[in-house]
């Protein structure tokens, strides 16, 4: 394994690069196929950043697994047909997210966008208001929402992502211990991006 690949893995995991795993893989897969054993190549191909982290450990290269690594790992699992050349989901797919809220916000129809986001998030809030905990799949869905906001920010839709994160924080700040880590990540992203 080349040191340059290990540094790329470290940068992807720590969120210090502007490329996605899919983009890295498209640029390097043929070379890696030649340089690695079949088993090592398959591990990297299918485990993606999880295997990259293992390779960093094996090579005693320090790194910090960040929420950006979770984000890159998640979008790396998407089918190539639904991603653009940079490894992000196609814009037309993103526009339909959250009852069309993302498309509305992209088109500067703020009122409709915020209303649709409100409606989407209200179903989680209603469960909590009824005194129940969110089931795990709904907690994962909220984590996906937070990651989608970051993805939009990475793709130059900064205000759309910020609106999504602000609404998440406003709705769920301090109301449930299981949701609070998602809220804290959203707050940290809002602070980072001003």
Automatic annotation (TrEMBL):
Identification of the protein by name: Uncharacterized protein
Keywords: Coiled coil
Domain of life: Bacteria
Coiled-coil regions, chain positions: 22-59
């Amino acid at each position: 394994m080349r040191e340059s690949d290990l540094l790329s893995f470290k940068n992807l995991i720590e969120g210090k690069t502007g490329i996605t795993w899919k983009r890295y893989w498209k640029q390097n897969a043929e070379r890696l196929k030649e340089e690695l054993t079949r088993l090592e190549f398959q591990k990297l191909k299918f485990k993606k950043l999880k295997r990259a982290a293992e390779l960093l450990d094996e090579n005693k290269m320090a790194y910090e697994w960040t929420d950006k690594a979770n984000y890159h790992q998640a979008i790396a699992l998407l089918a190539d047909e639904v991603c653009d050349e940079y490894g992000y989901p196609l814009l037309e797919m993103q526009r339909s997210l959250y009852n069309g809220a993302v498309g509305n916000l992209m088109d500067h129809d703020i009122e409709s966008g915020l209303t649709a986001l409100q409606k989407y998030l209200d179903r989680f809030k209603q469960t909590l208001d009824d005194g129940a905990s969110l089931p795990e799949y709904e907690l994962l869905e909220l984590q996906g929402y937070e990651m989608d906001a970051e993805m939009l920010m990475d793709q130059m839709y900064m205000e759309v992502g910020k609106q999504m994160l602000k609404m998440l924080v406003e709705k769920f700040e301090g109301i449930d211990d299981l949701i609070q880590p998602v809220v804290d990540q959203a707050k940290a992203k809002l602070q980072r991006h001003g």
